[in-house]
Amino acid sequence: MLSTIVYAVLGVVLLMVFALLVNRIFRLDLRRELIEDQNIGLGVAFAGTALAIAIIIAATILS
Question: Any transmembrane segments, and where (predicted)?
């Protein structure tokens, strides 16, 4: 149970770090791009990365 909580927290932290890196590297305002400008491509890329992180964490928990 403890390992599941640790990996869940790790997943959230990794997703937050990824969002910050996208903002810094590409000089984007992620919130503005997704909500105000409705940039579907960036939304799909961000969702894909979130799923990838989730799959990696799930595989780690199940192993």
Answer: 6-26, 38-62
